Amino acid sequence: MLKLEEQQFLGEAICNLSDVITKQNRLFTLKLGVSEHNLPNPSKFGELTVQAEESAGSKALMEMVFHCSDLEIKDLLSKSDPFLLISRMSENGTPVPICKTEVRKNDLNPKWKPVIMNLQQVGSKENPLMIECFNFSSNGKHDLVGKIVKSVAELENMYHSGNGENFFVPASNAHDCHSKEVLKSQVYVEKYLENSRHTFIDYISAGCQLNLMVAIDYTASNGNPRLPDSLHYIDPSGRPNAYQRVGN
């Protein structure tokens, strides 16, 4: 571990994050100082330039439309009520849910509304995603119809090729936990679109200003302002009331 007391102090600078991101190019230069160090020649400490960068993943959006064919009937008196659950696979193999579709009632060839994910949720286009199709149950115990494991890059290739991917389920009669049974049911990527969105930092660094207007409710329900239990009470000791504390 680096021992700071054994290093040569070259100067320090303090700024707010807002000072950096409000610059048009997000570059902010500060003069190094010696606020708590009695060092000679303070004018020779130089300058420090700070540059702010946003993660590309915070802006990148991926929009996909999925549809399936020939899903298995899971309900006794009707067709299945399917929905998709999309999860990111963690390093230890545990799925982490990131989004899901709506439920399509009584439909064995469902097409869902667009699913939108950002790259931060996924991690990267090469990370595996588990896409599970469930039959909805009102008691919360949804039946697995089938699943696939594909990366975003592979899902994009499925869209361009127009080919579907067969669902699979864990084999029920196999001793190997990795064995699986491939189903005739297939999932397709009908639409794949990449886009970007402006973030809050984009608006601030481009000069966006926010104005705040506060209105105070003086209705009788707030109590007599002469009594200490009123929200409008002016304490002779100078202690602020509830509205003053919020305003400050």
Automatic annotation (TrEMBL):
Concerning InterPro entries, the annotation shows: C2_dom (IPR000008), C2_domain_sf (IPR035892), C2B_Copine (IPR037768), Copine (IPR045052)
Source organism superkingdom:
Eukaryota
One Gene Ontology molecular-function label: calcium-dependent phospholipid binding
- SUPFAM superfamilies, sorted: C2 domain (Calcium/lipid-binding domain, CaLB)
Name the SMART domains for this protein.
C2
The residue ranges of the C2 domain are 44-168
Q: Which GO terms describe its cellular component?
A: plasma membrane
The residues forming a coiled coil are: none
One matching Pfam family is C2
Swiss-Prot/TrEMBL GO biological process terms: cellular response to calcium ion
In terms of CDD domains, this protein maps to: C2B_Copine (cd04047)
Protein name per Swiss-Prot or TrEMBL:
C2 domain-containing protein
Organism of origin: Aegilops tauschii subsp. strangulata (Goatgrass)
